[in-house]
Design goal:
The protein has 3 domains: 1-70; 81-108, no CATH class; 111-210, Alpha-Beta Plaits, CATH 3.30.70.60. The two termini are 70 Å apart. It is built from 5 helices and 4 strands. Strands 1-2-4-3 form a 4-stranded antiparallel beta sheet. With 224 residues, the chain is of the alpha+beta class. The mean pLDDT is 81.
Length: 224
C-alpha cells in the first residue's frame, strides 16, 4: 500500500509538472503571437503611410510636369504683349518700353541695392528739370544680405529722403512720375519751402521696395 501510494503521488507530481510546462508553453506561444501580430499590424500601418506619402509626391510631380508646358506658353504670351503692361513698346528703348518680364524685374528688384536706387532717383528728378539738394538714406546692404531665402518672400521697404529744387509745376510732375513709376514708391511726407524768388524746395520722405529671390527648399520627410 505504501509503495502504491508513493507511486500514485509520483504520478500526480509528474502530471502537475507536465501541466505547468504545457501551460507555460501555451502562455509563451500566446504572448509571442500577440506581440508578433501587434508588430505586424504596426509595420503594415507604417508601410501604408509610406505608400500614401510616395503616391502623393508622385501625383504632385506628375501635375508639375504637366503644368510646365502651359506655364511656358503663358510666359511667352506675357513677354510678347505689345503694348506692354505700362503702355510702352515691348521692343523699344524708351522710358516706358521693354518686355513685360524686364518691367516686372525692374519694378521689384530681387537684390538690395541702395546705390542703384539713388541713381534711379537722380534720373527721374533730372528728367523733370529739377535740381537735387540731397538724397539720403541708410545703406543696409550688409544686413539685407543675411536675409534667408524663403518660399514666400515679401517686399522689403527701402526708406530714403530726397530734396528737390524747382518750380511748382515741375514738382507736381515729379510726384506724378513717382506715382506712375515702374518701380513702386510710397510717399510718406512732403515738406515745402518757398523762396521770395519763387523757387520751391521740397523735401520728400518715401519708401521704395525690393523683394528677395524666392528660394526652393528640398527636404526629406520622415514618415512616422
Amino acid at each position: 500500500m505504501i509503495g502504491g501510494t508513493g507511486t500514485k503521488r509520483a504520478l500526480i507530481d509528474k502530471a502537475n509538472v507536465t501541466v505547468v510546462v504545457a501551460v507555460s508553453i501555451a502562455t509563451f506561444v500566446t504572448m509571442f503571437s500577440l506581440v508578433s501580430c501587434k508588430a505586424l499590424l504596426s509595420q503594415r500601418a507604417y508601410q501604408s503611410r509610406v505608400i500614401q506619402a510616395q503616391e502623393k509626391a508622385r501625383d504632385q510631380l506628375l501635375e508639375n510636369v504637366q503644368n510646365v508646358e502651359a506655364l511656358n506658353k503663358s510666359y511667352e504670351v506675357f513677354a510678347q504683349e505689345n503694348p506692354n503692361v505700362i503702355g510702352g513698346s515691348s521692343t523699344g528703348s524708351g522710358e516706358r518700353d521693354g518686355d513685360n518680364p524686364r518691367i516686372v524685374l525692374d519694378a521689384l528688384p530681387s537684390k538690395y541695392d541702395f546705390p542703384a536706387l539713388t541713381t534711379s532717383l537722380e534720373k527721374l528728378i533730372k528728367a523733370e528739370g529739377l535740381g537735387i539738394t540731397s538724397i539720403t538714406g541708410t545703406d543696409d546692404e550688409v544686413a539685407q544680405q543675411g536675409v534667408p531665402a524663403s518660399n514666400e518672400p515679401q517686399p522689403v521697404e527701402i526708406p530714403f529722403k530726397v530734396g528737390v529744387l524747382g518750380n511748382y509745376d515741375a514738382v507736381q510732375k515729379l510726384l506724378l512720375v513717382f506715382e506712375h513709376s515702374i518701380r513702386p514708391f510710397k510717399i510718406n511726407q512732403l515738406e515745402f519751402k518757398a523762396s521770395e524768388s519763387g523757387a520751391l524746395t521740397v523735401d520728400i520722405s518715401a519708401d521704395s521696395y525690393y523683394q528677395p529671390e524666392r528660394g526652393f527648399e528640398f527636404k526629406t520627410e520622415v514618415v512616422k
